[in-house]
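Appendix B: complex inputs.
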Amino acid sequence: MKTAKLEVLSNKQVSDRYWHMVVDASELQAEVKPGQFFNIRCGDEYIPLLRRPFSIYQINKHDQTLEFLYLVKGKGTQRLSLVERGESLDIFGPIGRGFKLQTGHGTILLLARGVGIATLAALAQEAAKRGIRSVAILSARSKNDLLAAEVLQGFGAGVYKVTDEEGNSDVSSVTMLMEKIMQEYEIEAAYTCGSKRLSKLLQNLTAQKQIYAEIALEENMGCAMGVCFACVCEIHDTEGSPRTVRICKEGPVFALEQVVLT
Amino acid sequence: MSKIVDELLNLQVKIGSLTLHNPVMPASGAFGEDMDNLIDFNQLAAVVPKSITKHPRKGNLTPRVCEVSAGMINSIGIQSKGIDYYLSKTIPYYTRFDVPLISSISAYSIDEFAEMAEIIGKVDSVAALELNISCPNLKGNGDAFGMNPEATRKVLLRVLEVTDKPVIAKLTPNVTNIQEIALAAEQGGADGLNVANTILAMAIDIHTRKPKIGNIMGGLSGPAVKPIIVRMIYQVRQVTKLPIIGCGGVMNGEDAIEMMLAGASAVQVGTASFIKPTAMMDILQEIKDYMIKYGINNINDLIGKIETVNAD
Ligand SMILES: Cc1cc2nc3c(=O)[nH]c(=O)nc-3n(C[C@H](O)[C@H](O)[C@H](O)COP(=O)(O)OP(=O)(O)OC[C@H]3O[C@@H](n4cnc5c(N)ncnc54)[C@H](O)[C@@H]3O)c2cc1C
Ligand SMILES: Cc1cc2nc3c(=O)[nH]c(=O)nc-3n(C[C@H](O)[C@H](O)[C@H](O)COP(=O)(O)O)c2cc1C
Ligand code: FES
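Resulting structure:
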């Protein structure tokens, strides 16, 4: 975990609301794991002031590059979209604990909503590298927002798309879809990011079927160093007693069964 | 060249009987053990862990921070593990560093301030106490002890009865007349004043019409507050000779110098570390660069040296 200035190799708009950025990570000299994130300074000015957290979208060890996929939401991400190729990006990281990838023979299930896919894509990439098959359900507002689908398919993942636009992204439709997938494949572990509604659903289903599951959580961050206690959430530890943890330090990835989803 | 000059600079400042080897230290709540792989704590003027409460506290609802123009609002709500944990884990951890440990105390009543000050004040490795009589998050409407001169005086009187350690009162800027509060703290026997804590603030998301932080109101920090804090340091300097620690919006060496010219003997750095984890080290270097540039050997020659033409 340190600050570094990495050269931006490209920063392009890839759909109405999403941008994709590639940075040269040869300077970084740190191992980056799926599920970890970087706290990025979007510009040198005081507005926006704070860094913004972004997950690793792709880790390209061979090329020594890192990729981010981000949704342009407010001031920070708007400013980030103005960063041009050749400029340097002030990043702090890698931060937090990544996913635990189970290495049995089975298949892993990825359940992502919106930009949550940015976080799970790196896991699909890692799974492919280790010969683990993945199946993904991607949920979004519109078809236009399902941009990582091809990337996942490129890793050999089976991809199911649901959108609000098409009316098949509600909880009951996704439940049916998940049941179907779980019958078809031997799901060994499941991972989710991006929606409380879907996470609750997955929490119930994986508990019933006794499947190991993890979630990557988000919360507004102050320091991303574990000192300010801005990014807390509640979990039940192994003994079942509630405990407040910091997403930047103890997370952002947690065992799904432990997380209190309100 | 600059290295030789660097070594000749006298950066030592005093806060009451407490000697600091330079004027740059962290602000409570924006500093912690997790930063020790990013900066060398021994280079700091002091270590100042997060305010401690007597009993463990869960803290406030999330979101606990949001951003506003050139600042942030926080409502952490002093999440705390309680005094027992502080005594058994936090203090021992910080004793490994060569710089003074300043313990920040938060309490609900004058008795509780005194009780905690007595216990923590007995610990040898604690160099000074900072009384957080200013946190705007503890009670419903953002009220704090430091809003009332009488309460401020009484807290200090009681605490100074039970401890010999230097006591710094961390004032709240959420008052009409900061001079009145500073004087009350002086009458109570404070060894130094921290000017100041965060400024009570609020932000609303116009799309959802909801407050941007869970606690509705919180404390504003960062560059946005600096001019207010500089003004308060200057005002406090007019009425008391007590050493002042300037706190609020110090982002770089220039900001630190500005506060020192207004009358601060040292500065605390909070939000800047979130943006640049090494900010305190850079601020120290920038102060040295300034001194070299203007041929100032002793940093004390800067304190309160604002040049004003008397208007009357
Ligand atoms: C661990 C982690 C990983 C993330 N990964 C990605 C990613 O890969 N791609 C992506 O597009 N987004 C990701 N996000 C969300 C992203 O950080 C926010 O969308 C972004 O900070 C919004 O900034 P803004 O200035 O555009 O929006 P604004 O709404 O103007 O932001 C104002 C403040 O709120 C904070 N904030 C707002 N929304 C969020 C949020 N959802 N999570 C955390 N803080 C927030 C901002 O950091 C900022 O301090 C991640 C968040 C976390 C915590
Ligand atoms: C996240 C956060 C937590 C804080 N917690 C405390 C605290 O526990 N005790 C305290 O006295 N001040 C606390 N403060 C206030 C800071 O110590 C400091 O007074 C304030 O942030 C202004 O300085 P800055 O602009 O450099 O951040 C906190 C500030 C922030 C941003
Ligand atoms: S953001 Fe400060 S503790 Fe996580």
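Residues 99-215 of chain A form a domain with the Rossmann fold fold (CATH 3.40.50.80).
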